[in-house]
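Look at a sample.

——
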Amino acid sequence: MWPIVAGVLVDTFGSFAVAVVYVLGVFGTQMAEGAPLSEESLSTPELIVAEILGLLLTAVGGFVAARIARTRHVQHGMAVGVGCLVIWLPLQLIGSGDSLPLWYDVVSFVGVVPVGALGGFAARKWATVPAST
């Protein structure tokens, strides 16, 4: 259980930190260009980058869980994806007032388990690579 908790924490806190830095970067760029801050949410290209970063962090969480567990790598990665769903789905339902497009939510929720499994798969491949001497 602890490897899964560690993987979910890596994903959750990593996603939060990256989101803060990314949003500050986007709005900082707008301010640096002298443009007024946009009152609307992030543009589609910015959302695509945010989605990729979020799913990448899920893969990292799956990788961490699988490396800690040292067994059933893909299953531990998938469990991280499920754990993230358990955390983020209720938060998304409660905070339904935000203006994220439907495609963003669908990709997030559909992609999280397979991407976590991919992180576990990468950990398994990493574990089977012989050390160079």
Q: What stands out?
A: The first helix runs from residue 2 to 32.
